[in-house]
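WARN retry 2 of 3 for item q-0093 after timeout on previous attempt; input resubmitted unchanged.
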Amino acid sequence: MALKRVENRLERMFEKTVSRPFRNALQPIEIAAKVAREVDLSRRLATQGMLSPNVVRVWIGPEDATRFEGFQKTLVDELEESVRQHALLEGYSFVGPVKVEMFIDDDIKIGDMEVDTEFVAGPSQPRLVVSDGRNFIVEETPLVIGRHPQCDVVIDDANVSRQHAEVWRTAEGVAVRDLRSTNGTFVNGHRVQAVSLTPRDEVVIGTVRMRVEVA
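OK item q-0093 returned
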């Protein structure tokens, strides 16, 4: 569902601001679909599970590049989010931060593109990715999750306590702790009090799913 919202934003991004002078002009949703296919084709199996390439390079022609002028940064941001959400949906992990780069190739015709992917290890910033599409940077200061409007991660769900749980960065990675909630915090189907998290772990609070992503 969150990935669909990203796709919808890509579809609407240029509806009112970018004309389509040619029938076969490239659309943002087409770029996202091609990127997702290349990510799937390039995935690797590792000891910690399936890995996704974290660097994506997209080449487009000059005509399409002209149409995207003024919106390229927004497009790149949305493409990066689409990679994160696709990885969340498929259960992929990353070896470093997700980065999408766009280039112009004079030899590429309007409506065409080329996509290349790469695994680039490096310092990464863990994020808490929520199933509704939101994501939050995880730092040493805990992110408080709950129903109260002053929580860092607000969940409007009657099954969630006002201050339900917290997630924070540790020397070893990321951890979650239940804050004496009524209905509990679950990791991979098991109710927990406090536990370290890996990118493959699914956290459920109320009816909302989330996981930590190193990207």
